[in-house]
Design a protein that fits this description.
The protein has about 325 residues and is mostly helical. The chain has a domain of about 220 residues: MetI-like fold (Orthogonal Bundle), CATH 1.10.3720.10. The protein contains 14 helices and no strands. The longest helix is centred in the middle third of the chain and has 37 residues.
């Protein structure tokens, strides 16, 4: 009796590796942060409000019913019209008009775009400067650490809005006939140079803890350069608090920009930022045209509140003690 032939070996299942971006996205949706987000109604509502404001600001040129920057389309006859649901209101101006006849809804969208741009740009500059100096101070130590921390102490001894006013005033005095783009640059630097201190102190404290751990000591033993240790090993482990702080600081930067614009030293008057709209509406607040101030103020509060709530949720989500 002849033995039966052995069956051919089964081929191993072929698995197609995921792309790095798809793999990272899959890990994010399976992680604790996404699960915490789905379980927090406050974070969901705040994210929706912030997303709505961001979409309206970024795509204002396509969504806005009018272009408030087009001076040829403005008509002073339509100035200070009330919202559409009030008497004498017009349907084409849903939230009314300002003193120049600009549609307030369109001006809010364009103004939110300017405020968000200035806030995000100033936070990015603050993060780059603060994280770099804090990492250097915490890892190197010695006189460099002492010097950077004393500069931080001096910066913290003055109110941030006064420092921003000083920097913005000096910049405008040095460039009195500056172009609009240079005015935005001076404003971003004025805000960011008052916000880097918190990042530097936070990163320095985390770096002082990380540099004593075994993986840093092992990297030093095998001859890895200090710069590579800071960039490849220490920096990724200190970015958690920075992410939370940056999210909260976006709202503070937007409010600071609105404050400077309200005081007349922010964005140029031709750019309808939220602070500029509030300053213009203040002159008509007690004469009955309340919508020129109330609606920009409400949008500013919505943006700042939604970003702050997202920052609070992110702080709790990234805290391992609360999991």
């Amino acid at each position: 009796m002849t033995p039966l032939p052995k069956p051919p070996p089964l081929a191993a299942p072929v698995t197609t590796p995921l792309a790095p971006s798809a793999s990272a996205l899959a890990r994010f949706f399976d992680g604790d942060v996404w699960h915490s987000f789905k379980q927090s109604p406050m974070a969901i509502v705040a994210a929706l409000v912030a997303l709505l404001c961001a979409v309206c600001a970024v795509f204002a040129g396509w969504i806005a019913p009018h272009n408030p920057l087009d001076l040829a389309s403005l008509d002073l006859i339509d100035a200070r019209l009330p919202p559409a649901w009030m008497a004498e209101g017009q349907a084409k101006y849903l939230l009314g008009t300002d003193d120049q006849g600009r549609d307030l809804l369109s001006a809010l969208m364009y103004g939110a775009r300017i405020s968000l741009f200035v806030g995000l740009a100033s936070v990015i500059v603050s993060v780059v400067v603060g994280v770099g100096l804090g990492l250097l101070a915490g890892f190197v130590g010695g006189r460099i650490d002492s010097f950077i921390m004393r500069v931080c102490d001096v910066m913290l001894s003055f109110p941030s809005i006064l420092i921003a006013l000083l920097i913005d005033g000096v910049g405008r005095a040095m460039f009195p006939n500056a172009h609009e783009s240079l005015a935005f640059t001076v404003l971003i630097l004025a805000i960011s140079l008052t916000g880097w201190v918190q990042y530097a102190r936070t990163v320095r404290g985390s770096t002082l803890v990380e540099r004593q751990k075994e993986y840093v000591q092992a990297a030093r033993v095998i001859g890895v350069s200090p710069f590579r240790i800071m960039r490849r090993h220490v920096l990724p482990n200190v970015l958690g608090p920075v992410l939370v702080l940056a999210t909260i600081q976006i709202a503070s930067a937007i409010i600071t920009e609105a404050t400077l614009s309200f005081l007349g030293v922010g964005v140029p008057p031709t750019s309808p930022s939220l602070g500029t709209l509030i300053r213009v509406g203040q002159d008509f607040l007690f004469s009955g045209e309340w919508w020129i101030t109330i609606f920009p103020g409400a949008v500013l509060v919505l943006i700042a509140l939604s970003v702050n709530l997202l920052g609070d949720w992110l702080r709790d989500a990234l805290n391992p003690r609360l999991r």
